[in-house]
Design a protein that fits this description.
Layout lengths: L4 E6 L13 E2 L2 E2 H10 L6 E5 L2 H9 L3 E4 L7 H12 L6 E4 L9 H13 L5 E7 L3 H4 L6 E4 L5 E5 L7 H4 L13 E10 H7 L6 H6 L3 H6 L4 E5 L11 H13 L1
Parallel strand pairs: 1-4, 1-6, 4-5, 7-11
Antiparallel strand pairs: 2-3, 6-10, 7-10, 8-9, 8-10
């Protein structure tokens, strides 16, 4: 399937790894590795969105299309919304947000994110989750959980352990509930352009700032988010110097 578009937001500024998209991994910059993962899908429209000229020059050097965007965006969703406006894409166009620090992202995960929007026209956004089996992750606030309805639309995202097993957890526990699946949210997003146009007019909501989860803004305003379920998390992303060494070894082995 290739009836969707891919946008790769790439920022130079990073509190933990400045210049992250330009880090070299196994002989290529990270942004080139991510771009090559996008090419594997066969999608025709692949855009790197950045506000940095060094990233622009690097992307042009390996043949990518680059759209220069405002430096004032707070997140990748806002940057992608600007790309959609610049490109003049229609409301029903589906876009996958392929983050610029995921050089090991599998093709199937990109395609699943797009399929949710293509197959569920009532959805404005799509994302991905995977069943949790580890007890620690279920109660770790750094691991975001999501509760789904019967059609796999997101009902709520939280850093808390949800669903909360009233009877099983009432006396305190360190074991995950066995009554129903607990899903970990994976931060892979797809958008319909009509949603991105709405998003630019949505004010930040209290729910979003309380949990520090930007996807809650969409739910707050009644946007439906369809979730694909995958069996295991995708390959390592890069946030720390230790991640660089780990991912470079994996790429070299590949």
């Amino acid at each position: 399937m290739s009836d969707y578009k891919i946008v790769i937001p790439a920022r130079y500024a990073s509190s933990r790894l400045p210049g992250k998209p330009l880090i070299e991994l196994a002989g290529k910059t990270m942004i080139q590795h991510v771009y090559e993962r996008a090419l594997e899908t066969g999608v025709q429209d692949i855009v790197i969105a950045t506000d940095n000229e060094r990233i622009q020059r690097e992307a042009v050097s390996f043949g990518a299309e680059v759209v220069m965007t405002s430096p004032d965006h707070e997140n990748g969703t806002e940057r992608i919304a600007e790309v959609a406006e610049i490109k003049g894409w229609d409301d029903d166009v589906v876009i996958v947000n392929l983050q610029g620090d995921e050089p090991l992202i599998p093709q199937a995960l990109i395609e699943k994110t797009a399929e949710s929007l293509i197959n569920y026209p009532q959805a404005g956004m799509s994302s991905v989750c995977t069943p949790l089996s580890g007890n620690h992750d279920a109660f770790d606030p750094n691991v975001v959980k999501v509760v789904l309805d019967k059609d796999q639309f997101a009902m709520y995202f939280s850093r808390a352990s949800i669903p909360w097993d009233r009877d099983g957890y009432k006396d305190g526990t360190d074991e995950i509930t066995a009554k129903m699946p607990v899903f970990r949210h994976i931060g892979m997003y797809g958008y319909r352009v009509s949603f991105l146009r709405q998003y630019q007019k949505m004010e930040v909501c209290a729910l979003e700032t309380t949990e520090a989860l930007e996807q809650l803004r969409a739910l707050w305003y009644g946007v439906k988010i369809h979730m694909s379920i995958i069996d295991e998390p995708p390959g390592h992303g890069i946030d720390t110097p230790e991640d660089v060494e780990r991912v470079e070894a994996l790429l070299a082995g590949k």
